[in-house]
Amino acid sequence: MAKVTYHKSHTLITLDGKEFNFATQLYQIGVYGIVNNDPSLQSSFQPQQIKKMERDLMKDKKEGKIKDFILGIPITVTDDSGFWVKIY
Asked: How many domains does the chain have?
């Protein structure tokens, strides 16, 4: 049983000041994610993919490749018999 903590929302600010917001919603089969509420920029993810994205973007922030990366509220989930559920 896997246990993963990621964040429900993210804000990325590029070096030229452009802001991108990424919001997620947990479902039993994975995580739905959308950028800037744009239907053309939506997809499904596994929690591990979002966690890796967070690590990579935090590294980019530290290295000065992006201006800022802000994490929203954390959520911890587990893969319970093939379905993702939130751990309270």
From this structure: 1
What gap in Å lies between CA 69 and CA 55, rounded to an integer? 10
> pTM higher than 0.85 for the full model?
yes
Neighbour-count burial of 47, counting CB atoms closer than 10 A to its CB (0-12 exposed, 13-18 middle, 19+ buried): buried
C-beta separation of 35 from 22 below 8 A: yes
Which tens digits make up the pLDDT trace of 60-81? Answer: 999 999 999 999 999 999 998 8
Contact 82, 25 (CB under 8 A): no
Looking at 1-88, list the stretches that DSSP marks H as alpha helix, in order from N- to C-terminal side. Answer: 47-62
Separation between Cα atoms, residue 28 and residue 18, nearest integer Å: 33
